[in-house]
Amino acid sequence: MGSTRCGNQGGFTLVELLITLTIMSVVGLIANSSYSDFKQRTILNRAAQVVAADVALTRTYAIRERTNVSLVADEANQSYEIRDAAGNVLKTRGFDADSDLRLVQLDVIAGGDSLTFDARGMLVSAFAFIDVGSDADSKRVIVNGLGRHRIITN
Q: Does 86 fall in a domain?
């Protein structure tokens, strides 16, 4: 007739489930911290590339308009403007809390916290540095007298 099954039944024990949950938690913590570091580095690299592109844009404006054009930094607000010789604002960029590229440091190391290109596209000063930084790291955009730029890790 009907037989009942006694003996081993399939399944996991409580100890096996707890060990699995512990291992999954540790792996999740490691992945989360790695992702956070990756995200910070990506934001910083992108911000440095944006600054370098805006330096090139400033130079292009100067050559195209045949006049001096400056990238004028407002380091307290982590922003800058690109202005022509008459003071007209051609472009504004901000890296503050409202921006998707939030920085804690924007430092222009040149005469008067600005970069100025003349009508031939030459930097008025011999060179300039623009430091951009997040909480953990910083990058430096180096601009030489010819307007060439490169990005290095500080």
A: yes
- Both tokens of 98, joined, read 């409202």
Question: The tokens 């790291």 sit on which residue?
Answer: 137
Amino acid at 60: T
Number of structural domains in the chain = 1
For the full predicted model, state whether its pTM sits above 0.85.
no
Rounded CA separation 27/140 (Å): 34
Contact 45, 53 (CB under 8 A): no
pLDDT in tens, 75-108: 888 889 999 999 999 999 988 777 777 777 888 8
- List the strands of the sheet with 89-94, edge to edge: 89-94, 79-84, 69-74, 114-117
- Provide the greatest CA pair distance for the chain: 103
Q: Is residue 8 in some structural domain? A: no
Segments forming the whole domain that contains residue 19: 14-153
Residue 4 lies in a domain: no
CATH of the domain at 32: 3.55.40.10
Q: List, as one string, the DSSP characters of 44-96.
A: HHHHHHHHHHHHHHHHHHHHHHTS-EEEEEEGGGTEEEEEETT--EEEEEE-S
Amino acid at the residue 83 = R
In a domain, 65, yes or no: yes
